[in-house]
Amino acid sequence: MPMTHLQHLEAESIHIIREVVAEAEKPVMLYSIGKDSSVMLRLAMKAFHPAKPPFPLLHVDTTWKFRDMYEFRDRTVKELRIDLIVHVNPEGLKMNINPFVHGSTMHTDIMKTQALKQALDTYGFDAAFGGARRDEEKSRAKERIFSFRSAQHHWDPKNQRPELWRVYNCRKHQRESIRVFPLSNWTELDVWQYIQRESIPVVPLYFSKERPVVERDGALILVDDDRMPLGEGEAPVMRTVRFRTLGCYPLTGAIESGADTVPAIIQEMLLARTSERQGRVIDHDATASMEKKKQDGYF
Amino acid sequence: MDRSVRRSPHAPDLAGADIERYLEAQQYKGLLRFITCGSVDDGKSTLIGRLLYEANMLFEDQLAVLEADSKKFGTQGSELDFALLLDGLIAEREQGITIDVAYRFFSTDKRKFIVADTPGHEQYTRNMVTGASTADAAILLVDARKGVVMQTRRHSYLVSLLGIRHVVLAVNKMDLVEYARTTFAAVEDEYRAFAKQIGLADICCIPVSALRGDNILSLSDKTRWYQGPTVMGYLETVEVDHARLERAPFRMPVQWVNRPHADFRGFAGIVMSGTIRAGDRIRVQPSGRNSTVARLVAYEGELRQAGPGQSITITLADEIDVSRGDIISSADAPAGVADQFEATIVWMSDQPMLPGRPYWLKISAKTVTATITHLKYRVNVNTLEHLAAKRLELNEIGVCNVAVDRSIAFDPYRENRDTGGFILIDRLSNNTVGAGLLHFALRRSENIHWQATDIHKQARSLQKGQKACVLWFTGLSGAGKSTIANLIEKQLYARGLHTYLLDGDNVRHGLNRDLGFTDEDRVENIRRVAEVAKLMVDAGLIVLVSFISPFRSERRMARAMVEDGEFIEIYVDAPLAVAEERDPKGLYRKARRGELKNFTGIDSPYETPEHPEIRVDTTANTPESAADLIIAFLDESGAIRSG
Fold first, then answer.
1. What span, in angstroms and rounded, lies between the C-alpha atoms of A77 and B588?
2. Which residue has the higher pLDDT, B151 or B229?
3. Which residues of B touch A278 (CB under 8 A)?
4. How many CA atoms, within 13 angstroms, populate the side-chain half-sphere of residue B562?
5. Domain check: are B149 and B186 in the same one?
6. Domains observed in chain A
7. What pLDDT digit, counting tens, does each position of A31-88 carry?
8. Among A5, B121, B165, B582, whose CB has the most other CB atoms within 10 angstroms?
């Protein structure tokens, strides 16, 4: 009986996760609380069953995530009984970095890119799993599953190692590190189908509900807490919305939707006419922005 | 086939309650990985862009970007330039070429597809080989106006070499030849004749226009004479390799030994071929111990059986030694075990492959040290001719004998890509520098066994009242290696120690008389002298080796041949200007005049030792004081010991 595409993807991801754990000295799994992280975590649970995954989760926290995400994160690690490290850039805290004031570029650089590098250096992790998929963005389509970073965390797209068959070269020099993407070959549709098949819990924000939002530059921003400054005459209105991706709430646009179950989300996605990353403010900064960010050390 | 209806690849009406039925059907959807080969000019990126577009895999915002990009960089006038969808990296967009392998995804009701899009030019052979290594099928594009060209032959050879069993020849740009049947038939005939020669059996030729969409998703009105499948139709139905692998003997390389507590010991890995059930007899290779499968453990509960491609964890009935890198095989049909092979190697690095140089070899989950013992020939990838060669350069392919430092389990690549394919890793840069396809074990490795002798190194050293070791002098010509080594040997001799001095020039008069000064000959030169030094250490001697030995890799190889603490690297350091000024043999002058090729320091590199045990600065020391310094260090460190 040939395997289905989800079985193939699952087996490939588990193989990748095991290979890294066998060869790296100190691996860690980046946990962003989103649906891709939820899938990656389930795959890690499967890879080492009946043992727990032999590595901790790392959440690089900007302090601007949705409240639902923090709640979901804490519940998940408690239920699964796995270690979680939360890292916030202390300098960013001191500078009081605020996406409303400093804008998305600076916020992302200080609270995500720099914070991630700090965390990896502080704990000495030499391999970090990330949930990125090749279908998300063009420069990702050419990134390897095993992506090597210099001691300064730089990515050199012209000097990537060829990946043949299922043989992964995990060797690296001291202080170099690997970012590993076990979900490279998954698409957004695969992720949701797998969530459905496996009944994987995800943050409730993915499901539609009446929520208070304000419309800014064409994006629907959820008024998640009182840190959000409201302009003159700007008042939150209740709309039935959900999120296709989750990040920092000031930078993540909601979509109007009635999809409140996983099948309804899949159905909506199949009919959808816009791709997933559009809701993320971060990608619109410049052409080829993701490739530039990645060269600087962004995941 | 229906020529009029353009079918949506996602189930008919998703707006209704059909979603449940759709999700149900998705449970059985398969996966096909394929590669597209051809150059930019053949319309390869256009074809993939067209497939994505036709499968409704392009979203509105992507289309908007594509429209904008088409106006800015496009080559199709006012039309959408699908190639721009795929050329992701900035450099590629600027130069208008596809450099790397890009992976694309789309799906229809029947299958999910992973497309490896690789560049076509000869300088990107390694990229194509990479993309082909995981593909089940290949789409080869040819321009209908040009027919089968040299590039088509090269791509076909690589496809066949990498073991892809299903090939589509897409005869593209039919719109530019008025959809002429005769043009298509001529290309088809020529290609089939060639494919037969190189052993490609399953060929499907399709006339298409990627730009206009003819015969991509539905059969075109313009080629009514064509009755075969469309490109999408072929991709949806071509048989993947699963059935063949399922019938093959069981193989599972052990990736990870899962030991959460004393009562559980599981072996985790991916099934490369065959099926497995509890109760099956297995053999652990290369050790050769047999046992029985106790359980197949999974997160969902115990599995009844598992087959090719599944990541599993198994437990065994017996407490036998199993570690990462071992292969668990069917006891009835185990894999081969050997330490010497014939293999085809595709070279992927700017640094040439040199026979004799040690590399890491990784095959499934096992990493060993390997050397190419003999490069039999190089293959001209365009004409398939065999050519004599001493090295492999980037993108070159050769057939070699390979020796590894301990036995490994394997299958011929033709039978199993995963247990017969390996990568070679440079030991200094850690880069993947080569891909290898195992053919068969060499008989001599099966028949020549190491003869254990009763009188061993320790006994021989003890008899001489000393500790055997290698004093390895490296440095530029004229640095003073031989002079210093000679002084040291005299001092050691005076103490009653048993020594031998291997001098580079002297050895080249005898044992290495056949070698020149090219990189590959330098590697072989050092390999031989390292082997001789090893024998002499085994004989209990203190061996002084005075060789330029310019490359780190080979010095590291020599070090690895003897035991820890037995190799003392002495860097006789003289700056090039000083050595050239001394020029005791007049060689630098000759080299500067161009009368001597490949001279170290002039037109051949010297790689400075990174961590020598001893470094002597010959600008600050006379040979006598340098020798005294070295002797003092050896005494202090206890490296040589008399009495």
1. 69
2. B229
3. 59, 61
4. 31
5. yes
6. 5-191+288-296 (3.40.50.620), 204-284 (no CATH)
7. 999 999 999 999 999 999 999 999 999 999 988 888 999 999 999 999 999 999 999 8
8. A5
Q: Do B194 and B315 lie in a common domain?
A: no
Q: In chain A, whose CA is at the least distance from the CA of B247?
A: A1
Instruction: Give CA–CA dist B69/B63, Å, rounded.
Output: 10
Helix, strand, coil percentages, rounded to 5, for chain B: 30, 30, 40
The answer to whether residues B208 and B341 belong to one domain is: no
Confidence of residue B112 (pLDDT cuts 50, 70, 90): confident
- Among B477, B549, B553, B642, the active-site one is B549
Question: What is the domain range of residue B305?
Answer: 248-330
pTM for the whole structure: 0.79
Q: Are A28 and A127 in contact (CB under 8 A)?
A: yes
Annotated active-site residue B107? The verdict is no
Q: Does residue B151 sit within a domain?
A: yes
Domain's final residue, options B409, B444, B479: B444
Q: Do A49 and B126 touch (CB under 8 A)?
A: no
Please provide the size of chain B in residues.
643
In Å, what is the CA distance from A106 to each residue of A98, A285, B77, B78, B501?
Answer: 9, 11, 39, 38, 65
Would you say residue B77 lies in a domain? yes
Contacts of A260 in chain B (CB under 8 A): none
Helix, strand, coil % over all residues of chain A, rounded to 5? 45, 15, 40
Q: Do B324 and A22 touch (CB under 8 A)?
A: yes
Chain A residue at shortest CA distance from B416: A165
Provide CB contacts within 8 A for A79, sequence distance 6+: none
Give DSSP secondary structure letters for B92-124: HHHHT---S-EEEEEE-SSEEEEEEE---SGGG
Relative to beta strand B311-316, strand B137-143 is unpaired
Q: What is the ipTM of this complex?
A: 0.87
Q: Answer whether residue B536 is part of any domain.
A: yes
Gap from A95 CA to chain B (nearest CA, Å): 34
**Overall domain count for chain B:** 4
